[in-house]
Structures are given as C-alpha cells and as structure tokens.
UniProtKB/TrEMBL annotation:
Cofactor field: pyridoxal 5'-phosphate
Name by which UniProt lists this protein: Alanine racemase
Family per record: Belongs to the alanine racemase family.
Superkingdom, taxonomy of origin: Bacteria
Function, as annotated: Catalyzes the interconversion of L-alanine and D-alanine. May also act on other amino acids.
Organism: Pseudodesulfovibrio aespoeensis (strain ATCC 700646 / DSM 10631 / Aspo-2) (Desulfovibrio aespoeensis)
Gene Ontology biological process terms from the UniProt entry: D-alanine biosynthetic process
Binding locations of substrate: 133, 313
Active-site residues, as the UniProt record annotates them: 35, 265
UniProt-listed InterPro entries: Ala_racemase (IPR000821), Ala_racemase/Decarboxylase_C (IPR009006), Ala_racemase_C (IPR011079), Ala_racemase_N (IPR001608), Ala_racemase_pyridoxalP-BS (IPR020622), PLP-binding_barrel (IPR029066)
Amino acid sequence: MIDYNKIQVEISLDNLAANVRRFQGVCGTVIPVIKSDAYGHGLAEVTRTLAAEGATTLAVGYVNEAVKLRCLGWTGRILALLGPVDEADAAALWEHDILAAIANMDQLSRVAGAARTRGRLDICLKFDTGMRRLGFRPEGLAALVDALRANPALVPVMASTHLASADVPEHEANVTMQAGRFQSVLDGLEQAGYQVEANIANSAGAMAHKACRMDSMRLGIAMYGGNPFHGTSWEERGQGLLPTMQVSAPVLHVHTLRQGEGVSYGWTHVAGRDCEVAVVGVGYADNYSRSLSSRGFMNIKGYRVPILGRVCMQMTVVDVTGLMGEGLAGELGDGPGVRPGDQAWLLGGPAPGTITPEDLAGWWGTIPYEAFCLLGMNPRSYGK
Ligand SMILES: *Cc1c(COP(=O)(O)O)cnc(C)c1O
C-alpha cells in the first residue's frame, strides 16, 4: 500500500452491496471475485460486506490470497482461480480448506501427490474453451478422467471456463462456441460419473448471455460499478450500476500562467492565453499514470478541469480558469474559486463533473479494472 501521500480513496460499501444484490436471484449463485485486494477496494472490508449480503463462496486468484482471506475469518468456501503454483500452495489447500482450480496435469499431479498423505481434496477443474490461457483442453477430457480415476482422493466438485470476449457484441458467436465446448465437457464429466457445479460467466457473460449463467457466475467488475459494455452497442445493458470508488487529492498551489509560458517538465503545454492553474498533489508515484499528461481531466467542485502538460511524480497541473471568474488567482470572480487545500477529484467527485471509471480509463488508455487496482493502493476510507 502507498503511504507517502495525501490521496484519499473513498469506497462505498453500500453501493458495492447494491450492485451485488442486482445479480442475486437473477442468475445462479453469485461468486464475488475479490482477487487483487478486491480490485483495489480492500479484501477485508469487501469481504465483510459480501458476508452480510449472504455470499457463500468468494473467488480470489492465488492460493496465498485465499489463505489471507481465511485468516481474516471468512469461513465460507474460497475458490482460488489460479490454483496451486508450488508445494506450499498445495499444502495450504488442506490446511485452510481452499477449493483450487486445477488447470493442467502438473497441478493435478502436485495435488495428487499431496493427497496421498493428506487425504480427500475437493477441486475445481478449469477448462480452456477458447481463452488460450489456463485450463485443460476439451480434447484431453478422456486423459483427465483417467487421471481422476487413478486419484480418487481428488474430488471434482466444480468445473469452470473463462470467456474471452463476452463484452464484445461482435463476438457473440465466440461466446456461443465457448459455451458449446464447455457443455460437451460437462456432458463428458457427467458420463464419467462426476457431478459438478458449473460456471462460465464473468460480469459481461452474466449480463449479456443468459445461457451462460449456469449454476454459478463469477462476478467482478460489475460489482465494482464498472460497465463492461462501455463504448459498445450494448452499453445500456451495463447501466445503472453504482460507483464504488472515488479518489481525491489536495490542491497544493494556485497561480496564473501567462500567455506563452510553458508548464511542467518539458513545457509540453504552452499557455495560449493567460489562465489560472492549480497544482494538485498527485502523480505517477501514486499510480496516477503519466499517460494522463495533457489528456486527462480532474473534477474540482463539479467542474471538469483539464490536465496541462506532464504528470510529475507527485504533482499534476490543471487549468482552473473556468472556476475563477475573471480575476487572478485568489481574487475570485463568478466561479466558486480554488484554494490550496481544496479537493481535486481524479475519479468521481460532485456533479456535473463526476468522473466515471470509464472516463478516467479512457483518458489513461486502459480499462476501469486497472484504474481501480492501481488507485486502490492509495490510503482508503470506507463510507456509505
Ligand atoms: C477476474 C475473473 C473474473 C471476473 O471477471 P469480471 O470481468 O471482473 O467480472 C471471472 N473469472 C475469472 C477466471 C477471473 O479471473
């Protein structure tokens, strides 16, 4: 966690709970995905909220995240999506009662070896139906079933696969193809005598593809208020989710930039006219990307203010002329004015200038997932 700045990340657990509730009952069991410190929202706090909302299974990435979740006191089921990567991970599955995804024969032999001394272990079989990242290929099902039969202590209770492009309307046929391959795997498992809980959907899959809802779904970005369909023809399918993260930094200094003066490193921005600028105490050391230089906006008192020139390590300059009226810095005109100590919002903030995760990610050249994970490493507080 970053602890050397004055940034405030405000998390709304009420909004997170409301987003989860939208999915409960609509489709099978919701498995909230809280990998990577709950997408930067805080593992412990998000877990408490999800427990209160009746979640029974939570999904993380690595086994060590699962161990941490167990040590926080979570007694429900934990799914480790990445499975064990070493012997310590494998041992932890028994020690902390973790359901791990097993995605290849090496992982299977590792847990089979440990099962000889430790006994029964429930596992989740992960299949690669098109993502080409992790998982057993459907063609290898017969060999997998043989390996399972040879190791009866390993009990498959879940089967998963991951969609490559559930958020892309033009790729609807790919989703259907992946779902079809997964269904044939499930049929094969059933014929072999294995009854499993099946899940394929991430947020986009659950929202856009009803057939993908199955027994359970792994809900990530939608729970954190991100619209997976932003900028596509399906945009409205992801509307109405509530924002869960806002981020602000303090204004440090306000002054006049004269016409013709350059500002910040390299003078990449030169003032075309006299303007009022505010120096905000946030930079790339706070995970506020330098790629926002002369591209992004902040929100001060509901006004969108553009970033001028380069984002520095701990500072960024914005044009606040629109808030200052006609006067120079400090002599306020019609606008609300800006003073050192005022809050500049990098994400969220008051209307009408509220910055959505999609706005910020767009200027940044990334997706809301990355903006949440990175900005969430700053000091957080929790509220309504
Ligand atoms: C992260 C992740 C999810 C959640 O995806 P969202 O797009 O955030 O809903 C689901 N399944 C797997 C395997 C993941 O790694």
